[in-house]
Specification:
One of its GO terms (biological process) is proteolysis. InterPro entries: Papain-like_cys_pep_sf, Pept_cys_AS, Pept_his_AS, Peptidase_C1B. Helices cover 43% and strands 16% of the residues. It is α+β, with helices and mostly antiparallel strands. The protein has one domain (48-83, 92-437): Alpha-Beta Complex (Cathepsin B, Chain A), CATH 3.90.70.10. Strands 1, 4, 5, 6, 7, 8, 9, 10, 11, 12, 13 and 14 form a twelve-stranded mixed β-sheet that branches. The chain is globular and about 75 Å long. The model has no long low-confidence stretch (mean pLDDT 97).
Length: 442
């Protein structure tokens, strides 16, 4: 191993001091910070929020201090349909209701994975992976499908936000404390040769405690409710004695089996036109398998455009923090000129960023528009879930080049796929490791 000598450091310091440009940049960065000093104002003029296809969406939602973006994005796609179909000015579905059942199911999913790996050392990579984060706020589209299929949805008025859904740190902290303790108990029961009945009885007691924690923290999910609203013509409507499932069927009415998650992962281990799943990724035991079809980026974007052209918004997952100006709502490769600021080339390929841990899906939002010029997409309209104080009243603009580099997943209808693509999706998927970047939770 080569150590750093004092002489080598002195050489570097002398060269830095002799560079007048770096001295000037140092003054700016020390005073103003890295991103503020590197901000490129041209990016704003290159990404004006005007689009040739621009869907009606209503006001943006706000996930606040929680990681429920995947959930907000999915519910927002449903909200767009409800706004159109029932002539509403604004409306939201309950994110707190879905959050309750997600954490409840994730806890059980964790128990099942702990039992399935009970024969492995606690230091094994799989067990360590499970214990690192027993559950969290994030998720993926197919996990959302499992929740909707089992529990339906409710209007926000039927189960409003709580302090702990809007700011989830304490709930996640104490729920994970409990799950790790339960993991130790379950593993010990297996090691002691306990009967299957005894193990399941213990697991059931644990789930009762999980339910209690969630009910205390988030409230009790409704089983029946009335739905009251006034449409844009001020006409009053009321629908009584609905269940979450009957509400979904009547007011959302989306057949979730008709949608396919598409990924773009240009790494050597994931050839295009093949399906993939991720080991130990899910939330509902017995629910829908998380499964994707990997396609090249050109095809990926054409599918998203096709769905937008038909008036339907698109759930998508991306690495939102890369080349992104939160306040201005611009996601563009020229948002910041870091190469010029540091006089260092930071450029890597999308595949390299996935392989070397530089990028993965961190956030889910909704594509609600796109600008097509000479039959080519140039920029995309993005509905975020960070409230209306950022971007253009909560909406962002993503340049087409940014989409190429930092978007990893979209969800589109099956009828938009070719017969060959659908056949590839329906084949038995290649199973990826639990820690594969495609298993990242948005």
């Amino acid at each position: 191993m080569a150590e750093i000598t004092n002489e080598l450091t002195a050489k570097f310091a002398a060269e830095f001091k002799e560079n007048e440009k770096q001295q000037a940049v140092q003054n700016a960065v020390v005073k103003n910070g890295i991103t503020n000093s590197a901000e490129n104002i041209v990016a704003q003029s290159n990404n004006v929020p005007v689009f040739s296809i621009d869907l009606k969406t209503g006001n943006v939602s706000n996930q606040k201090q929680s990681g429920r973006c995947w959930m907000f994005a999915a519910l927002n796609t449903f909200r767009h349909k409800i706004l159109d179909n029932f002539d509403l000015k604004d409306f939201e579905l309950s994110q707190n209701y879905t959050n309750f059942w997600d954490k409840y199911e994730k806890s059980n999913y964790f128990y099942e994975n702990i039992l399935a790996t009970a024969d492995q050392e606690v230091t094994s990579r799989k067990v360590a992976f499970l214990l690192e984060t027993p559950q969290q706020d994030g998720g993926q589209w197919d996990m959302m499908v499992s929740l909707f299929d089992k529990y339906g949805v409710v209007p926000k008025a039927a189960m409003p936000e709580s302090s702990n859904s809007s700011n989830s740190r304490d709930l996640n902290n104490y729920l994970n404390k409990k799950l790790r303790k339960d993991a130790a108990i379950l593993r010990q029961l297996v090691a002691d040769g306990a009967s299957e009945n005894d193990i399941q009885a213990s697991r059931e007691d644990m789930l009762q405690e999980v339910y209690n924690i969630l009910a205390i923290s988030l409230g009790t999910p409704p089983t029946t409710f009335d739905f009251e609203y006034r449409d844009e013509n001020k006409e009053y409507h009321i629908d009584r004695d609905l269940t979450p499932k009957s509400f979904y069927d009547k007011y959302v009415g989306v057949d979730l089996n008709n949608y396919v998650p598409i990924i773009n992962a240009p790494t050597e281990d994931k050839p295009y036109n093949q399906s993939y799943t991720v080991e130990m990724l899910g939330n509902v035991v017995g629910g829908k398998q998380v499964k994707y079809l990997n396609l090249d980026m050109d095809t990926f974007k054409k599918l998203a455009i096709a769905q937008l052209e038909q008036g339907e918004s698109v759930w998508f997952g991306c690495d939102v923090g890369q080349s992104s100006n939160r306040q201005n709502g611009i996601m563009s490769l020229d948002t910041y000129d870091m190469n010029e600021l540091f006089d260092i080339d930071f450029t890597t390929t999308k595949a390299q960023r996935l392989d070397y841990g530089e990028s993965l899906m961190t956030h889910a939002m909704v594509l609600t528009g796109v600008d097509i010029v000479d039959d080519q997409s140039t920029k995309w309209k993005v509905e975020n879930s960070w409230g209306d104080k950022v971007g253009d009243k909560g909406f962002f603009v993503a340049s087409d080049a940014w989409m190429d580099e930092y978007t990893y997943q979209i969800v589109v209808r099956k009828d938009l796929l070719t017969a060959e693509q659908l056949k590839a999706y329906e084949k038995e998927p290649t199973v990826l490791a639990p820690w594969d970047p495609m298993g990242a939770l948005a």
